[in-house]
Amino acid sequence: MGGWVPDAHGPFSGPLREQDLPRQLRSFLRGHGAPALLELYGPQPPHTSAYAARLARFARDAPSAWRSDPVWLAVGPTDVAAPERLLLRLLEQPLKDEPVYGVLIDPLSHFRALAPELLPSTLPALCRARLARRRLTVVLDGVPDGEPGDDLLLLAEQLVLDTESRVVAVSQRPHDGPGERWLRSEVAATAPDVPGRMLTYAALKLLIAVEPWEGDEFDATVAGALCADTPMTDRQRGEALRELTAHGLLQPTRPGWYRRTGDRFPHGGAAKDRALARAVLDGTADPRRGVDAYLDLAVRLLRRDDPEGAALLERLEPQLITRQGLFRLLRAKQTLWRTTGDWKPLCVTAAVAIRETGAPQQALDALERLSTPRAVREIAVTMRHLGELPFAVGALDALEASDPGPRTAPDGWVLHTRAAIQCDQGRLKGAERLLRRAVEAHQIRGDVRGEAWAVHHYGRLRLLRGDVEEARKVLEDVRNRFTGLGDLQGEAWTVTELGKAALVHDDFLAAVQTLGEAVGRHHENGDARGRSWAELYLGIAHAASGGPEEAVPLLDRARRGFSSAQDTVGQAWAEHCLGVLPAYTAEDRLAATAELDSALTGFRRAGCLHGDAWTLLERAFQWGREGRAAYRAVNRALRLFESIDDPSGLRWSSGAEAGGGPERIPLTARLTLPEPDADFDHGTLSPATHARVRLTLLDDRSTAGTASRIELRIQPGAEHPWSDRSAGLPWLTVRATPLTGADVEPAHAVTLRPSPRAADAAEFLFTPRRAGRHRLLFTVEHLETATVLQEVETYIDVVEGDAEGPRSGQAPEALRRS
Q1: N or C: which end of the chain has fewer CB within 10 A?
Q2: Quick one: CA dihedral 492, 497, 503, 505, positive or negative?
Q3: DSSP E strands: which ranges in 75-228?
Q4: Are the C-beta atoms of residues 343 and 546 closer than 8 Å to each other?
Q5: Alpha-carbon span 791 to 469, nearest angstrom
Q6: Cβ of 148: how many Cβ atoms within 10 Å?
Q7: How far, in Å, CA of 714 to CA of 734, rounded?
């Protein structure tokens, strides 16, 4: 975090107050015409670093006129080889009162796909702008000896000259570089400030494990993976790390991260790297928290042409392609270029990152310059993002035709991308078979991320088919998979689909809440296209729930977002919804007609028959109201609905053809293409004639050994006989049965009456005996006849009592949405 400096370990023999400093150091801290750079050197690096940390604290705690926020940058061997890494870390540091994604993101974003040699000339100006805007004390801890250290100090001096910021450099020996405004101060040797007792067994084993490792830094999770043959709890590992730091064998580099001090072990590093990569790939090591260390590992493997380098990079790709991964990707790119003179292994990843952060055309240009099968596959995905669906199919066809040889298994990514395109077009026939084959192909390859995306699209398919409950179960499961993989894009898109599921189910309050969360997630990821889709569904939710004043600006913002992201299909749907929205149509009928005409052009260009048919139908209604013949448009819509087996659209079209169509078709009718024999009410899956079981977890999270409250109520639809409270409502009974190791009270059946009011509800206490996923079965019966009316099964993710809780809305969502 901004302003962090490492804590002192053991007694500190240096100055305890600013007044105890030598006069020249006090002048340096107060900026009284002092040099821009102070070099602290001494024979004991840990003690010199502690001295620099004390100076940084003095600067941070000084009166406002001289206060300076510290930025601690630990200099490692990789940073020396690629100095841009240090500058990127300086720009990446989040500082107090500055937005997490500030003005420095955009100037760097386009460097994802540009030649790496262009970045070194751009970074100094950006760093200098930041140092001039804020008064900062930059500590370079671990400046190397010799010419590399001279170059680094000269660069640091140039960054802070004529600004109020300054640099404190920590080295073992003084540098004789040409800098004329350097201030040097020796930190004298002291008695070793280390405990007198020997290392414990756990600390010794951890030290032996990290000593031959070639990585610059590591955190507790990486340390655990390095010494996996020595079982340790998180608490024991944390104590071992603190013990090694107190002995001066490890050096804190940033919060929770460490570096091995002293000379490196000369042998065994390559073997250690391969073993650690295999641990990630086989699932025994979790790379999410220690992703920086694992990415450096992937770069080292790529540098050696180790085949596991490409596999590890693919596993880490979700951590690189979002806005949050920008600096991580640029550091890896510069490191690979500095050490090999090339960065080809990262080219496709960089192009994917460009696409996923809102520039698909630029990504397409970059991918077309590459010739690998992966690049061609990503071209198809990019064409789908652009709404060029026929061209996306053509790219997949070309990819499969280019490899006529025998295959042990098909490409799962190609299969599930085909299915996703069919869902976008409204051609659902055969999509389920494609997705089942895709899941099998990913499983054969051991591609857990590919399998997660295939399952995600299967959830989309079930939702399009109107199977809302199955879609929710699948999507909840796949969101947990994405969370386990650290795939922020996957999580955001799955939350979007869950919000759409609530919308299809007419649960508008849950839809607005979930889609609002999805908008925020896409925004954090820098995914303009994803944000626009979430805003589109959010606008539909407001329109369907009687809030046109919120719907119009949301749909208009979605349209502009789609235009910016060049998503033809998304833009056409936004224009379609605006063109049929009563509030928009009433204000300007001609503008609404123009929206529908533009939507029709977009759908036809994209080959989206579903959107084409609905737009023709709506256009026919407008012509009919104007006294114009609409039979041709209705007939064309009927033929299109027949070609994609959409019974909902057929029923609406038939009603229009007979002259009995409604004044307005609900926007939610467009969200599904039910199975031909599905149970639906004139094109909507809700139907107001049904009664639903509503389950709500009343506590933020469920922990092992602690009771959580579950509320259950029976909510009838507006046209259900039970919706009339003046009529005699039946008495129902509800019984909860735990299907896993848990207790539920009361153990007997509870009576209640059906009602949409929260007060008319039953409450159960759920006490899990262990952490993990628990399942509950709720059985609803008619009291007088003992007839089972409904059985609802749900699950709850339970965490350990002393563990960190899940992120807001994660674990209990399956229950909240049931």
Answers
A1: N
A2: negative
A3: 136-143, 166-171, 182-186, 218-219
A4: no
A5: 12
A6: 16
A7: 10
Distance CA 464, CA 674 (A): 7
Name which of 361, 37, 287 is nearest 182 in CA terms: 37
Tens digits of per-residue pLDDT, 568-587? Answer: 999 999 999 999 987 676 66
Torsion angle, alpha carbons of 759, 762, 765, 768, to 10: -120
CB atoms within 10 A of CB 587: 11
Q: Which backbone phi and psi does 786 adopt, to 5 degrees?
A: 60, 30
DSSP assignment of 458-483:
HHHHHHHTT-HHHHHHHHHHHHHHHH
Two structure tokens written together for 151: 């170059």
Polymer length in residues for the chain: 818
For residues 75 and 78, what is the distance between their CA atoms, to the nearest angstrom? 8
Cα dist from 153 to 44, 176, 177, whole Å = 20, 10, 8
Q: How far is CA 106 from CA 2, 14, 112, in A?
A: 21, 43, 11
Q: Judge contact between 301 and 312, C-beta under 8 A.
A: yes
pTM above 0.85, yes or no: no
Q: 406-413 long-range CB contacts below 8 Å, 24 or more apart?
A: 408/444, 409/440, 409/441, 409/444, 409/445, 410/437, 410/441, 411/377, 411/441, 412/437, 412/438, 412/439, 412/440, 412/441, 412/442, 412/445, 412/447, 412/450, 412/451, 412/454, 413/377, 413/438, 413/450, 413/453
Longest CA span, the chain: 98
Which residues make beta-bridge pairs with 71?
138
- pLDDT tens for 13-67 read 788 888 889 988 988 988 766 788 999 999 888 889 999 999 999 999 888 888 9
C-alpha distances in angstroms, 233 versus 1, 81, 93, 409? 26, 36, 31, 40
* Cα dist from 651 to 412, 504, 511, whole Å: 36, 18, 26
